[in-house]
Amino acid sequence: MVTGSNKGIGLACIRALCKQLKPDDVVYLTARNPELGKKAVADLEKEGLKPRFHQLDISNKASVEALRDHLKKEHGGLDILINNAAIAFKSKDPAPFSEQAKVTNGVNYFDNAQAYHILSPLLRPNARVVNVCSFVAVMTWGKMGDDLKEQFRKLATEEELNTIVNKFIDLAAKDEHTKHGFPGTAYGFSKVALSAFTRLQDRIFEKDTARPGIAVFAADPGWVVTDMSSGSGKKNVDEGADTLVWLAMRPEGDLEGRGEMYSDRKLNKVFL
């Protein structure tokens, strides 16, 4: 299953999964807008592929729970979860940074975390979770203060991470975030936070004896030509989806680099 998959990188992931998985495996394309989601499915059907559609808005808890209940009833579990849904303000967007910080981290971090917690109980042994992050996280890390970096390195719980993200949002509202070592990019910081979330959740599964072999990865699709990038980039969507799908298809027992971020199928750690 792929969140935010009616277009762009998410849609490319659906296409690749449909082609690479077994014919009887079920792949779910999800979208906030049912009309757009069903159209995407119809377009893929013209290519000979057979994904299924289910409505999903990760910002709406009831929507995520409805998907969870459907998957549990129809399939009993989940083997692949690619968390792709995200937003980014355009560079010339007039919205104040305080709003950008709150909205961007609300969706890219908090809503993704909420969706993960609702859906993760469905994960079967040896399942793969891929959180779509970005090379921008590495760039943003380099612009963060040393004290803040150390807080990220020492993170032990999700509650601690939530506190840091909320502090960024609160300081941004007062235009004081950079004074405390936070970066000047809301999107970049949201991807640093999601990368940290990836590490924390993977550590939990590393100790899960009831469901062995589950691994959580972060993936950088690269600079891809999409609506989010305003049509600029160096990769097409299929190239951007490659590392995401490669991680999602990692065979049983292949856990190298678990909890970390990959770019172009190579380890690209954020927290140095």
From TrEMBL:
MF term (GO), any: carbonyl reductase (NADPH) activity
InterPro entries per the UniProt record, alphabetical: NAD(P)-bd_dom_sf (IPR036291), SDR_fam (IPR002347)
Keywords: NADP, Oxidoreductase
Domain of life: Eukaryota
Family membership noted in the UniProt record: Belongs to the short-chain dehydrogenases/reductases (SDR) family.
PANTHER family according to UniProt: CARBONYL REDUCTASE (NADPH), CARBONYL REDUCTASE 1-RELATED
Protein's UniProt name: Carbonyl reductase
Species for this entry: Stichopus japonicus
